[in-house]
Design a protein that fits this description.
It is built from two helices and no strands. The protein is mostly helical.
């Protein structure tokens, strides 16, 4: 095969061109990877903020329900006393002790 003087330089340029193309391809893939990670990172950050707000809201609701539960327990304990029975007898049935005098307000009609 006959070689010309300029053939050797041409093959080196082609090899260099292929190496550069490969390098550019790798750089493009790395940039694409970094951009994808950045986008997912922002999405995860937003999700984290939403979940944090939801946790705060649920904790407030939990405190509210615990307070309501405590009030129910106190009411339940009160309903077991004689004072509760007397209050219900007075309010619903209009009962009174024999030695008590009941004053009722006159209707303003």
């Amino acid at each position: 095969m006959i070689e010309f003087e300029g053939d050797e330089g041409l093959t080196k340029k082609r090899k260099r061109s292929k190496k550069r193309t490969g390098l550019y391809l790798v750089i493009a893939l790395v940039l694409l990877f970094v951009a994808t990670l950045g986008a997912h990172g922002m999405t995860l950050s937003q999700d984290c903020d939403k979940l944090s707000a939801e946790v705060t809201e649920l904790e407030a609701k939990k405190k509210e329900l615990e307070q309501e539960s405590e009030e129910i327990k106190e009411r339940s304990e009160y309903m077991k006393t004689d004072a509760y029975i007397e209050d219900v007898a007075r309010e619903k049935f209009g009962l009174a002790y024999d030695d008590e005098i009941i004053f009722k307000a006159a209707d303003s009609n």
